[in-house]
Amino acid sequence: MSEHAALIAPAAAEFAGILRETGESDLSARTPCAGYDVRALLNHLLYWGPWLEAAGRKVAPPEVSSGEAEAGLVDDEWLSAIEKQTARLVDVFGAPGAWQGMTALGTAEMPASIVGDMVLGEFVFHGWDLAKATGRSLDVAPEAAEAVLASAVAMGDQARAMKVYGEEVPVAEGATTFERALGATGRDPGWTS
């Protein structure tokens, strides 16, 4: 899926725009991700970003001393940290080579294209989560919507078994491609805080 490499930078730019509009008062807002408020979702992104980057570079994952919930990565510099992390992910996954061959995400060996699609999904789905939580909207390009839908459907059963996705949410007849992608990941396209 190295053709998806071209989708990374525009999706990251939309994602970054939502981040820059997220303020201190938004950190306790609920998100469409069950069990995550904005602070916890930002912590999730900061925790897993280095793992995704390592997988894209095909190097060993970072050494960690705690799990995601205990990491506490959202401090006064969270915006700068996540913007730098986003730029590194764009640098890595914006290149077709990152999508080729095999890599490891932690101890799990998998095709690098799956990790690339995960990164695209992080920007698109979690960008939408943050936008919905903070009363904003996210512009998802049609090509990105198609890519994340295909990925969500392909990984759906395994992601649900691993509790990464919730149960599939039925969407209305005539739903957009992106709404169908949201439903496939267990998100309700009509979610409101």
TrEMBL record:
One of its GO terms (molecular function) is metal ion binding. InterPro entries: CHP03086, DinB/YfiT-like, Maleyloyr_isom, MDMPI_metal-binding. It comes from the Bacteria. Residues 9-131 form the Mycothiol-dependent maleylpyruvate isomerase metal-binding domain. NCBIfam families: maleylpyruvate isomerase family mycothiol-dependent enzyme, TIGR03086 family metal-binding protein. This is Mycothiol-dependent maleylpyruvate isomerase metal-binding domain-containing protein.
